[in-house]
Write a structure and sequence with these properties.
It is built from nine helices and 13 strands. With about 325 residues, the chain is an alpha/beta fold. The two termini are about 40 Å apart. Strand 4, helix 5 and strand 5 form a beta-alpha-beta unit. Bound molecules: S-adenosylmethionine. S-adenosylmethionine (SAM) binds next to helix 1 and strand 2. The site of S-adenosylmethionine has 25 residues, from helix 1 and strand 2.
Length: about 325
């Protein structure tokens, strides 16, 4: 399979580094603001992501963080806010001009934020497909709007690399477009559209499958939002194609013997007459107390056909607190 499209991608982001392009590829969500954090305007203009990968809950105890595909550096600054250690955030990018632009942006950030030192960020030239990072060395790895550009073989390799560098129980946090509709081959093969995060998306099921095939035992769907429309007036399609974006956290937990735990926001509520319901698989349900469950557990509960257990649909908004 040809990987020539990767060069087009590099060229697109070389141009986006040399001349900030507001709204270039992604940006549908407001910028994460934190107390005492002043994000330079240039970083906001170079926000080429489609959600946030920065979640305080992932970032306790000064974690070691890896960010792949740095863009203007905004999310690295947000990560550094939590990490606050020299070289606490490793930033990797394959495009020299993007690394230079982000370096300038970190200098700017240092002027605006008394708590921030540019040495908190360790910028390295490198490729998502061959990370210049040691095995099992990172607590939290992130990428925003890069992996959707990759075709299947490269996506598999990029996920394998993230898995390799994460410590056991480490977290891979990602934000990417997904698409449930069929994207015509002519759009999929359009290298520029792919680079702009518009035509490489997988369905959510395929995306999750790629993650779990890489070995991640737990997956959380944290957000799912409308993203873009490709319509006949502007693109080579005879139908409207609806694209969404997702925020996902994949945890390097051991793979359960009965398959991965994928939390999509399903919740089970026991509303029977007993003091509790025990499914004898590690879940205790107290009356009328919601318990977030993974899709596998939701399916097992449903197959019991009980009249006193309610199982919600996926909310696509899972923020912890469940049991698998
Ligand atoms: C869509 S932009 C996203 C930038 C940033 N994550 C954000 O949210 O603003 C993709 C980024 O990945 C970089 N990139 C492209 N191909 C790459 C590769 N093979 N390995 C590492 N970085 C790459 C680009 O230079 C660019 O910085």
């Amino acid at each position: 399979m040809s990987t020539a499209y990767l060069e087009t991608t590099r060229n697109v982001y070389k141009a986006a580094a040399e001349k900030p392009d507001v709204g270039l590829c992604c940006t549908t969500t407001p910028v994460w603001q934190l107390p005492g954090l002043d994000v330079p305007v240039i970083m906001q203009q170079m926000n080429y992501g489609c959600g946030s990968t920065v979640n305080p809950g992932d970032l306790v105890n000064s974690p070691k963080i890896l960010y792949v595909g740095v863009g203007g550096g905004m999310e690295l600054l947000q990560f550094a806010y939590f990490s606050r250690q020299i070289k606490g955030v490793i930033g990797i990018d394959v495009v020299d001009e993007m690394l230079e632009a982000s370096k300038r942006n970190f200098n700017e950030a240092e002027k605006l934020n008394p708590w921030f030192k540019k040495e908190f960020v360790d910028l390295r030239k490198g490729d998502a497909l061959n990370l210049p990072v040691e095995d099992n060395s990172v607590d939290c790895a992130a990428q925003n709007c890069l992996f959707n550009i990759f075709k299947q073989a490269e996506l598999k390799q990029a996920l394998k690399e993230m898995y390799r560098v994460l410590k056991p129980r480490g977290r891979l946090v990602m934000s990417d477009p997904i698409c449930e509709a069929e994207i015509p081959e002519i759009l999929r093969e359009d290298e520029k559209l792919r680079a702009l995060c518009l035509s490489g998306s997988l369905t959510l099921k395929e995306y999750i499958r790629m993650i779990t095939d890489a070995g991640f035992g737990t997956v959380e769907i944290r957000a799912r939002r409308p993203y873009r429309i490709l319509g006949p007036a502007n693109y080579a399609t005879d139908r409207i194609i609806f694209i969404e974006s997702v925020e996902v956290c994949a945890i390097k937990d051991p793979m359960p013997s009965d398959g991965p735990c994928v939390f999509t926001g399903k919740t089970a509520i026991y509303y029977g007459q007993e003091a509790m319901f025990d499914d004898e698989k590690g879940h205790l349900f107290l009356p009328n107390q919601p318990l977030a469950v993974c899709d596998k557990t939701a399916g097992a509960l449903k197959s019991l056909n009980r009249k006193d257990i309610f199982i919600s649909e996926s909310t696509w908004f899972y923020d912890g607190g469940g049991r698998c």
